[in-house]
Amino acid sequence: MPGAPNVLEDVHRSCAEVAALHREHVSINDAALAELAAELAAAADDVRGAVRGLPLPIRFHSLEQELTLLALFHLLDFGSGHLARPESRRQSGGRDWREALQYGLLGLHLGGTRLDSHKLKSFSMYDMNQVFGLDATVEVPVMPGVTMSKPGPLQPLCKSLLAALTDTGAQLAEAGHKTPGELLLAIGEELAKAGRTSASAFVEELVDTLPAFRDTVLYDGRTLVLQRRAQNLAADLACVYGGREGGGRFAFPDVDQLAGDSGPTTIAALRAKGVLQVADPDLAATLDSGAELPAGPHERALRAAAVVACDRLAAAANAAAGSSGGATLLTVDTP
What we know:
- It is a single chain.
- With 335 residues, this protein is mostly helical.
- Helices cover 56% and strands 8% of the residues.
- It is built from 15 helices and 6 strands.
- It has helices at residues 7-21, 30-42, 44-50, 63-75, 86-91, 97-110, 117-121, 125-132, 155-175, 180-193, 199-209, 228-241, 264-272, 281-289, 297-323; strands at residues 26-28, 137-143, 146-151, 216-219, 222-225, 276-278.
- The chain has a two-stranded antiparallel ribbon. It has a two-stranded antiparallel ribbon with strand order 2-3. A two-stranded antiparallel ribbon has the order 4-5.
- β4 (216-219) and β5 (222-225) form a beta hairpin.
- α4 (63-75) runs antiparallel to α12 and α11 crosses α12.
- The longest helix is centred in the C-terminal third of the chain and has 27 residues, at 297-323.
- It is globular, with a radius of gyration of 21 Å.
- The two termini are 31 Å apart.
């Protein structure tokens, strides 16, 4: 529909609405935000140097292979709080979730596994353990010398990851694409042919084709649009591949409209800098422990506030850099 807002506009608008409605629970400290913006502007060269996406540290036979791993990394980049507790971290070899995720995906690739729709559809709980070091069960003693398997603390995460993989495999097969990388290349090519090369169009096409990437929730009768993982993938594609030969399909002109990451790492950093402030002491204690915050009003208000804070921080830092004669500081939001 002509004049209808695109998905990135929906993200910024809906997050602003939710953050405003719940500012008594999660607020943005203007003074702390201005101080952090000044810090970023003062370290402009370092900030620009840090905007480099997620380059994978191995050689690939094709761009399709490389994009497949990148797509799966972002698809599964959720639930990091499940590995915050020491007993859970031990199951993954002491790695945090993003490290365990990258380690597992690279291991599959180096082992010669073709991550196509058939493989993704056939993933099992056994694979979750073998690939990512996650065990959905724990052994509980029931009598001397006898144990029984019971659901462990990582079972919810394992079920969610497994559902994302198998659903993506099924959707790829239905759409006629062999791998996630093939799909990304096809989306980029189709948008380029239609003259619609943009981050917003890419995100819309991606979440329509692979619903496991979708990140929207109903909140107080409103639809809170976040699309965090799809946006992070778009940012990496633009940052890592947009400038490469043949990568023009990912040179998104609206990449600066991508929202800041609304995940736990961003929320923790903004809280550490005093930008995000939480009124409920119990909620603050949960966040300080690093535990997974259950989906619900608190989690949604925090994520919305993080996006709004990043919007304001980018504007303030860019203004500070511009007033000192420098170039625009923050033009790409990367995870």
